[in-house]
Structures are given as structure tokens and as C-alpha cells.
Write a structure and sequence with these properties.
The complex is a heterodimer of chains A (about 325) and B (about 110).
Chain A: H1 2-13, H2 17-42, H3 48-58, H4 61-68, H5 80-108, H6 112-143, H7 148-151, H8 170-191, E1 196-199, E2 204-209, H9 217-237, H10 242-263, E3 269-273, H11 278-320
Antiparallel strand pairs in A: 1-2, 2-3
Chain B: H1 3-26, E1 31-32, H2 33-42, H3 49-61, E2 65-72, E3 75-82, H4 84-108
Antiparallel strand pairs in B: 1-3, 2-3
Classes of the chains: A mainly alpha (about 325), B alpha+beta (about 110).
Chain lengths: ~325, ~110
């Protein structure tokens, strides 16, 4: 019987004070009546193992206690759609504000990685606070049964027009914008990079970017800048529309032109060596050029594929448009 | 999720609504927790204590049942029975159940 007592004690510990005694008495009466029934049927006392099976059938004390308690959800299914939407809006605002706040530092501070980690840390912290605050607000609304009619007040006439189209992941778009921002910060520093020397006095090597890159400095800035702006726009509307599809096609076309221009550079990287193995540095320069050309080809293929997808979506959107 | 798990989950959902009707019907006569469970089991409806007792309490809170603590066999037991509101509700639910059952029969044929 010690096992049954311990089970009931454990059950009590998961219940509020006003329920403890009542629930205990009710369950105790039931367990002992069941025990007596089974003893009568078997003609003997139940052993330890049989008692254990009986208690196991009732369930974990925490689960049994939970069944006696009122609503156990922080936000129930009636409030959940509105809660999710509110969370999405609040997190998107926090994301854009944090990104805008850190941009000047990215381009002027010189510690790009530090700024990025700072941004991510800040985003996690702010995100958690927002999550806690929005959850608490909706939990209180639910607890006191208020706001449900106001939240879902609607009329078929006042519904916002939603154009059917390709949806997108906000997280994916955010990371795309982040990578582009980092690339831009790196690119701005790269062009002003004066090169560096590696090696000893006897076998030294100077590595620097070819001066030909200066020809595409502004075009790259404009393309990446426009792409970042487009991603922010996509983040806000949470999808693709005709404007963003067309703008993306224009950006992709411009990217292809610049990629062709870059591929025609005589040299992309200048590696000048001295000493006995100077010829080997010339060979290294050819390898570096080939690596860069391969990367450019990969980027070009991705841009062509994305443009094809955009065109397909635009065609679909055109066929859906009312005549 | 396997086919069997799907079946178990759907079976539970299907039974959940029916349990209330069965419990209300059984409580036309007075019962305490265990005797109610035993009676339902003898008629083919197996409900575990963790589901049945909280359900009975909820129905009592909704004024569909009345309860009384009494001592029987040296143990304090809570006896439940249908309240007047519960009786009317049971009647309405029974009619609804018969209608649903006949509609479903027609659909399932």
C-alpha cells in the first residue's frame, strides 16, 4: 500500500491546494475499490508487481493531475492565428530596425564580423523579449476572454486583397539580405585594398586585385544595393508580386552584363613574385583567374535559373489577371 | 506516423464526444467514480480513470451533474447523479446522437 500512498502523494503535489484533498479522496476510493475487486477475483492479496500495473494503467500523476486543471495552453487555438500574425509583425519590425541600426557600423567600423555577431546577438535577445511579451499579452487576453471579437471583427468587403503568387520564407530572404550586405561591406573594403606581401625577403610575393575591378565598382554597388532593397521589400510584403518579380529580372540582367564584363578582364588577381621561383607565381595567377572564372560561371548559372523561375511566375500571374 | 497510430488517434477523437453522452446516460443512476467506470466497462466502454474522473468533475461544474460525499465501506466516496439540467441535456443529446447515427449509417452504406 506504500506504493499507492506515494502515488497519491505525488498526484497531490501537482494539484492546486483547493483540489488536493478532493481529488486524492476520489482517486483513493477508486483505487482501493478496484484493488478489492481484483483481490476478490484472485482470492489473494495483490503483489507489488500487480499493484504497479494497476497504477501504471491510471497514468503518470502529473498527467492525471493535468486533466483536472483548466486550460493548460499559453495560447489556445482560438487566439493562435492572431497571436502568430502579431508575432510575425513584431519580429519583422525588430529585424528591420536592428538591420538599419547596424548598417552604418558595417560600412564604417571596419570590424564587419564583430558587427554581424553583435547584430545576431541583439536580434536573438530582442526576439526573445518580443516572443515573451506577445505570448504574455495573448495569454492574458485568453485568460480573461477578452478581445476575441475585436481581433476577428471582419466583413467580406473589408478583407485585404491577396494576390495569389509565390510565397517566400522570411528567414531565407533575411539571410539573403544579410549575405548581400556583408558582401557589399567586403567589396567596398576590397577595392581599396592595396594588396599584401607574403613570404620572406628572398622569396617574397605581392598579392593584389587587378586595377580592372575599378571599372565595375559602381555597377556592383548599384546591383547589390538594389538587391538588398528588393529583399527588404520582399520581407515586408512576405511574398513575390509583379513588381518584385520584374525588379528581380532587371537586377539579374544587369548582373549578367557585369559578370560578362568581369570575365573579360585580362587578370583578376595580380601575384608578383620574386626570387628563384618567380615563374611559379605567374602560374599561380592563372590558377587564381580560373578559380574566379569558375565562381563567376556558378553565379551566372544561378542568376539564369532564378530569372527563368521569375519569368514563369510572371507568366502565371499574367494568366491569372482578369481579362 | 504509422497506420495503426493514425487509427488510434482518430479512434480517440471519435470516442471523445461520445464519452460525455455515455457518462450522462449512466449517471441516471447514482454512482461513485469506480462504480461508474466498472458499469461502463461492463457495457463495453473502457475509460481510464485519468479521463473519466476529470470529465465527471467538469460535467458537475457545468451543472449537468450533482454530487454528494458519503462514507461507504469506511471510505469517503463522491457520488454523482444527473441534475435536472443534465436530464434535459441528455434527452437532447440522445436525439442528436440518434440523428447523427442514422445519417452516418446512410452515408457509410
Amino acid at each position: 500500500m506504500r506504493m499507492i500512498d506515494e502515488y497519491l502523494n505525488s498526484l497531490e503535489s501537482f494539484l492546486p491546494d483547493d483540489l488536493k484533498q478532493e481529488v486524492r479522496d476520489e482517486l483513493e476510493a477508486s483505487i482501493y475499490a478496484q484493488l478489492e475487486d481484483e483481490c476478490g477475483a484472485l482470492g489473494r492479496e495483490l503483489n507489488q508487481q500487480e499493484q504497479e500495473i494497476l497504477l501504471r494503467k491510471i497514468g503518470h500523476p502529473m498527467r492525471v493531475a493535468a486533466a483536472y486543471l483548466p486550460n493548460q495552453e499559453l495560447v489556445g487555438n482560438e487566439y493562435f492565428p492572431a497571436y502568430k500574425k502579431a508575432l510575425q509583425i513584431a519580429l519583422s519590425i525588430a529585424l528591420v530596425v536592428n538591420l538599419l541600426a547596424v548598417l552604418p557600423e558595417l560600412f564604417t567600423g571596419g570590424h564587419v564580423l564583430q558587427s554581424v555577431f553583435g547584430l545576431l546577438g541583439n536580434l536573438i535577445q530582442v526576439g526573445l523579449w518580443i516572443f515573451a511579451a506577445v505570448t504574455l499579452i495573448f495569454h492574458l487576453l485568453q485568460k480573461y476572454g477578452i478581445g476575441l471579437d475585436e481581433i476577428y471583427a471582419w466583413s467580406p468587403n473589408s478583407l485585404k486583397a491577396h494576390k495569389p503568387g509565390r510565397s517566400l520564407s522570411r528567414l531565407e530572404t533575411f539571410f539573403e539580405a544579410l549575405v548581400e550586405t556583408l558582401f557589399l561591406a567586403w567589396w567596398l573594403n576590397l577595392v581599396s585594398w592595396q594588396g599584401s606581401s607574403v613570404g620572406s625577403d628572398t622569396v617574397g610575393v605581392d598579392v593584389s586585385m587587378s586595377p580592372e575591378w575599378a571599372a565595375v565598382f559602381w555597377s556592383v554597388n548599384m546591383i547589390v544595393g538594389a538587391s538588398i532593397a528588393l529583399n527588404v521589400y520582399k520581407l515586408i510584403i512576405a511574398g513575390w508580386d509583379r513588381f518584385s518579380l520584374t525588379a528581380n529580372l532587371v537586377i539579374n540582367a544587369a548582373t549578367l552584363v557585369v559578370l560578362i564584363q568581369i570575365s573579360r578582364f585580362e587578370n583578376h588577381v595580380l601575384i608578383r613574385g620574386s626570387g628563384d621561383i618567380a615563374a611559379q607565381w605567374t602560374q599561380a595567377m592563372t590558377i587564381a583567374d580560373n578559380v574566379i572564372l569558375s565562381i563567376l560561371a556558378g553565379v551566372a548559372l544561378y542568376v539564369i535559373w532564378e530569372s527563368y523561375c521569375n519569368l514563369r511566375e510572371l507568366r502565371k500571374a499574367a494568366s491569372r489577371a482578369p481579362a | 506516423m504509422t497506420d495503426s497510430e493514425h487509427y488510434q488517434k482518430l479512434k480517440l477523437e471519435l470516442r471523445r464526444g461520445v464519452l460525455i453522452l455515455a457518462v450522462l446516460a449512466e449517471l441516471r443512476d447514482e454512482h461513485y467514480g469506480y462504480s461508474l467506470r466498472r458499469n461502463l466497462l461492463s457495457k463495453g466502454l473502457d475509460i481510464d480513470e485519468g479521463t473519466l474522473y476529470p470529465l465527471v468533475r467538469r460535467l458537475e461544474k457545468q451543472k449537468l451533474l450533482t454530487s454528494q460525499w458519503r462514507e461507504e465501506d469506511n471510505r469517503r466516496k463522491r457520488f454523482y447523479r444527473l441534475s435536472p439540467i443534465g436530464r434535459t441535456t441528455l434527452q437532447q443529446l440522445t436525439e442528436e446522437w440518434r440523428q447523427v447515427a442514422s445519417t452516418l449509417d446512410a452515408i457509410l452504406q
